[in-house]
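Dig into what follows:

_____
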Amino acid sequence: MTEPADFAARLAKGKRLLGLDLGTKTIGVALSDVTRTIASPAETIARTKFKADAARLIQLAAEQDVGGLVLGLPRNLDGSEGPRAQATRAFARNFNRVSPLPILLWDERWSTMAAERMLIDADRSRKRRGELIDKVAAAIILQSALDRLKAFEASSVEE
Protein backbone atom coordinates (compact mmCIF):
# COMPACT_ATOMS: atom_id res chain seq x y z
CA MET A 1 0.00 0.00 0.00
CA THR A 2 1.70 3.10 -1.22
CA GLU A 3 1.17 6.75 -2.02
CA PRO A 4 0.22 7.58 -5.63
CA ALA A 5 3.69 8.94 -6.56
CA ASP A 6 5.45 5.88 -5.12
CA PHE A 7 2.92 3.56 -6.74
CA ALA A 8 3.45 5.22 -10.14
CA ALA A 9 7.22 4.88 -9.77
CA ARG A 10 6.92 1.13 -9.04
CA LEU A 11 4.87 0.33 -12.15
CA ALA A 12 6.58 -1.30 -15.12
CA LYS A 13 5.77 0.13 -18.56
CA GLY A 14 3.20 -1.81 -20.54
CA LYS A 15 1.63 -3.47 -17.50
CA ARG A 16 -2.08 -3.15 -16.87
CA LEU A 17 -3.73 -2.27 -13.59
CA LEU A 18 -6.58 -4.04 -11.85
CA GLY A 19 -9.18 -1.90 -10.11
CA LEU A 20 -11.08 -3.50 -7.25
CA ASP A 21 -14.32 -2.59 -5.51
CA LEU A 22 -14.24 -4.80 -2.44
CA GLY A 23 -17.64 -5.64 -1.02
CA THR A 24 -18.74 -8.06 1.67
CA LYS A 25 -20.26 -10.48 -0.87
CA THR A 26 -18.49 -9.63 -4.13
CA ILE A 27 -15.37 -8.03 -5.57
CA GLY A 28 -15.94 -5.83 -8.59
CA VAL A 29 -12.97 -6.02 -10.95
CA ALA A 30 -11.93 -3.57 -13.66
CA LEU A 31 -8.92 -3.68 -15.97
CA SER A 32 -6.92 -0.90 -17.57
CA ASP A 33 -5.51 -0.95 -21.07
CA VAL A 34 -1.72 -1.36 -21.41
CA THR A 35 -1.22 2.40 -21.73
CA ARG A 36 -3.11 2.82 -18.44
CA THR A 37 -5.47 5.35 -19.99
CA ILE A 38 -8.87 3.61 -20.00
CA ALA A 39 -10.53 1.45 -17.35
CA SER A 40 -13.09 -1.17 -18.36
CA PRO A 41 -15.33 -3.36 -16.20
CA ALA A 42 -13.99 -6.92 -16.22
CA GLU A 43 -15.81 -9.27 -13.87
CA THR A 44 -17.48 -9.72 -10.52
CA ILE A 45 -16.00 -12.28 -8.15
CA ALA A 46 -18.32 -13.89 -5.61
CA ARG A 47 -16.38 -13.71 -2.35
CA THR A 48 -15.72 -16.87 -0.41
CA LYS A 49 -12.58 -17.01 1.73
CA PHE A 50 -9.58 -14.73 1.47
CA LYS A 51 -7.36 -17.50 0.10
CA ALA A 52 -9.75 -18.25 -2.79
CA ASP A 53 -10.39 -14.56 -3.49
CA ALA A 54 -6.65 -13.83 -3.55
CA ALA A 55 -5.97 -16.85 -5.77
CA ARG A 56 -8.51 -15.63 -8.35
CA LEU A 57 -7.04 -12.11 -8.31
CA ILE A 58 -3.49 -13.46 -8.67
CA GLN A 59 -4.64 -15.69 -11.56
CA LEU A 60 -6.37 -12.77 -13.26
CA ALA A 61 -3.30 -10.56 -12.75
CA ALA A 62 -1.08 -13.20 -14.38
CA GLU A 63 -3.48 -13.76 -17.31
CA GLN A 64 -3.80 -10.03 -18.02
CA ASP A 65 -0.16 -9.02 -17.39
CA VAL A 66 -1.07 -6.78 -14.47
CA GLY A 67 1.56 -4.69 -12.70
CA GLY A 68 -0.45 -3.32 -9.78
CA LEU A 69 -3.80 -3.05 -8.05
CA VAL A 70 -5.97 -0.05 -7.27
CA LEU A 71 -8.21 -0.96 -4.35
CA GLY A 72 -11.19 1.24 -3.55
CA LEU A 73 -11.05 2.56 0.02
CA PRO A 74 -14.58 3.19 1.35
CA ARG A 75 -14.23 6.38 3.39
CA ASN A 76 -17.15 8.07 5.11
CA LEU A 77 -18.44 11.27 3.55
CA ASP A 78 -16.47 13.33 6.09
CA GLY A 79 -13.26 11.52 5.07
CA SER A 80 -13.03 9.37 8.19
CA GLU A 81 -12.63 5.61 8.03
CA GLY A 82 -15.12 3.14 9.43
CA PRO A 83 -15.24 -0.66 9.67
CA ARG A 84 -15.42 -1.21 5.88
CA ALA A 85 -12.28 0.87 5.33
CA GLN A 86 -10.51 -1.08 8.07
CA ALA A 87 -11.56 -4.35 6.42
CA THR A 88 -10.25 -3.07 3.08
CA ARG A 89 -6.90 -2.14 4.64
CA ALA A 90 -6.73 -5.62 6.20
CA PHE A 91 -7.45 -7.21 2.81
CA ALA A 92 -4.64 -5.15 1.25
CA ARG A 93 -2.18 -6.14 4.00
CA ASN A 94 -3.08 -9.82 3.61
CA PHE A 95 -2.86 -9.63 -0.18
CA ASN A 96 0.62 -8.09 0.10
CA ARG A 97 1.68 -11.23 1.98
CA VAL A 98 0.76 -13.47 -0.97
CA SER A 99 1.56 -11.22 -3.95
CA PRO A 100 4.38 -8.80 -4.80
CA LEU A 101 2.01 -6.53 -6.76
CA PRO A 102 1.94 -2.97 -5.44
CA ILE A 103 -1.41 -1.78 -4.11
CA LEU A 104 -2.77 1.74 -4.21
CA LEU A 105 -5.69 2.46 -1.90
CA TRP A 106 -7.99 4.92 -3.66
CA ASP A 107 -10.87 6.93 -2.22
CA GLU A 108 -14.03 5.35 -3.59
CA ARG A 109 -16.61 7.77 -2.21
CA TRP A 110 -19.53 8.13 -4.64
CA SER A 111 -18.26 5.39 -7.02
CA THR A 112 -21.20 3.06 -6.44
CA MET A 113 -23.69 5.93 -6.73
CA ALA A 114 -22.02 7.05 -9.97
CA ALA A 115 -22.14 3.48 -11.30
CA GLU A 116 -25.82 3.18 -10.39
CA ARG A 117 -26.60 6.48 -12.14
CA MET A 118 -24.70 5.38 -15.28
CA LEU A 119 -26.57 2.09 -15.41
CA ILE A 120 -29.94 3.79 -14.91
CA ASP A 121 -29.08 6.28 -17.66
CA ALA A 122 -28.15 3.32 -19.88
CA ASP A 123 -31.67 1.96 -19.23
CA ARG A 124 -30.49 -1.26 -17.56
CA SER A 125 -33.10 -3.25 -15.66
CA ARG A 126 -32.83 -3.46 -11.88
CA LYS A 127 -31.71 -7.09 -12.19
CA ARG A 128 -29.05 -6.25 -14.79
CA ARG A 129 -27.83 -3.28 -12.72
CA GLY A 130 -27.34 -5.65 -9.79
CA GLU A 131 -25.18 -7.88 -11.99
CA LEU A 132 -23.06 -4.99 -13.29
CA ILE A 133 -22.83 -2.50 -10.42
CA ASP A 134 -19.69 -3.82 -8.70
CA LYS A 135 -17.51 -4.08 -11.79
CA VAL A 136 -18.73 -0.71 -13.09
CA ALA A 137 -17.90 0.85 -9.70
CA ALA A 138 -14.45 -0.78 -9.92
CA ALA A 139 -13.99 0.81 -13.35
CA ILE A 140 -14.93 4.23 -11.95
CA ILE A 141 -12.43 3.81 -9.10
CA LEU A 142 -9.71 2.66 -11.49
CA GLN A 143 -10.39 5.45 -14.01
CA SER A 144 -10.10 8.06 -11.28
CA ALA A 145 -6.74 6.61 -10.21
CA LEU A 146 -5.52 6.34 -13.82
CA ASP A 147 -6.29 10.01 -14.41
CA ARG A 148 -4.28 10.98 -11.31
CA LEU A 149 -1.40 8.64 -12.19
CA LYS A 150 -1.17 10.23 -15.64
CA ALA A 151 -0.51 13.54 -13.89
CA PHE A 152 2.41 11.95 -12.01
CA GLU A 153 3.80 10.52 -15.24
CA ALA A 154 3.54 13.92 -16.93
CA SER A 155 5.33 15.67 -14.06
CA SER A 156 8.14 13.08 -13.99
CA VAL A 157 8.70 13.57 -17.74
CA GLU A 158 9.01 17.33 -17.24
CA GLU A 159 11.71 16.95 -14.57
In short: The chain has one domain: 4-158.
